[in-house]
Amino acid sequence: MRISKEEPGEGTPWRRDLRSGTGLAGYDADMSTASPNDVTVVILAAGEGKRMRSRQPKVLHPLCGRPLIAYALRAARMVADRLVLVVGSDGDGVTAVAGPGVAVVEQRERLGTGHAVQQARAHAASGTVLVVAGDMPLLTGETLERLVVHHCATRAAATILSAVASDPHGYGRVLRQGGRVARIVEERDATDDQKKISEINTSVYCFDAARLWPALDRVESNNDQGEYYLTDAIGILSRSGARVEAVVVGDPDEALGVNDRKQLAAAAAIQRRRILDRLMLEGVTILDPATTYIGDEVLIGADTVIHPHVTIEGDSVLGNECVVATGCHISKSRLADRVTLRPYCVLAESVVEENAILGPFCHLRPNSHVGPEVHIGNFVELKKTRMGRGAKANHLAYLGDATVGERVNVGAGAITCNYDGFRKHDTTIGDDAFVGTNVNMVAPITIGEGSYIGAGSTVTKDVPADALVVERAQPIAKDGWAARWRARHGKPRPGETKKDS
Asked: For the domain with range 266-469, which CATH number is right: 3.40.50.1000, 2.70.70.10, 2.60.40.10, 2.160.10.10?
């Protein structure tokens, strides 16, 4: 199975069309100062997020396995020639998520969205400036594409992304005059009549840079918050006679921002539904979407079946025709084709190769590697262990820091004693070896190929190939000892009364 994790970028078809002049019917690039080939995306991520009640920046809170800011970055990369990230004084973690190729500027004083955009001025002096909020994880790159295309085609000074909301409370309202956008009024500054308007501002904007910066220079902070609103630039442009357009987002969910943990949970529920819908359309069977949690980074092949109450997270990849039974938890792991996980397996940072069968109730701790056709049974734990092709550990075993060869059989209750209280030590078990029930392998140790370890043995020395090792103490039986002990202590047998004895 071939699975690609490449993010869309310069090769996106709409961008090729724009550059070749075929993407915008009737668009004359010479008549507009807004160039579709020169898009700077400014992502605003400096907010404190006080309502999150958290020590970390709001945009670093995870949603379906990714920090909020990662969604904005992913969508922005579909349209951007340049990316500028505006962070606060505590923005080191945000910068780390952004990675290389992103210009980072700091908003040292939080004086509003207009002030935040001003910090990016040196990186967006010309062309098209697309402003995106860093706390809108449901916004898609396709919507940003549509916004940029419309903005450039209409030669507007500014184009806002709006939405029609059934409950517009908390959002800025779009005020129109003669059908055109006149200005945006924030909720806290709106009149009662204005609050009845259902068209809301999503905090996503396209600007012609040549007209944005003069308008921002005229923005004042004469509002309840004493802040410089980016929305005021819309009113300034409109009053000056410039063309201000609006594109209504098709799915109002894309307009949802995250300001507190309740909104974070609501956005996560929508994103989970999107993830599951996408996977099902790609050929994955999900028996109960309501109880299935799959992260945004996860990739799953066709004809794989996911049972109820399964969690798959991190950059996990599952191949074709796998079965993941009820209650399994998979994190940052890779499963090849036709892997079966029986109920309640837990896998973390591990690899399972094709046709392996695991569980029920097995635990793969980090850096475990299960080879093809391996059987890992109930209550078996692996830690930093590699199992060769066809090896079996079917019951109640612990294998830590071990290399297990092909076709090895590990009996119930067998363990590698890998920790001496100070250091971890390795165990190597050769191909075709047989490790009996309740065997203790005291590491560091090597069990030779084809050898047999008798049940109950504690093995402290290397075992040669094809050898038999039996290490058991000689049993001692003392006739009548138990009866004499009970008589001396006045204890009856279980099931007897004192009188009976």
From this structure: 2.160.10.10
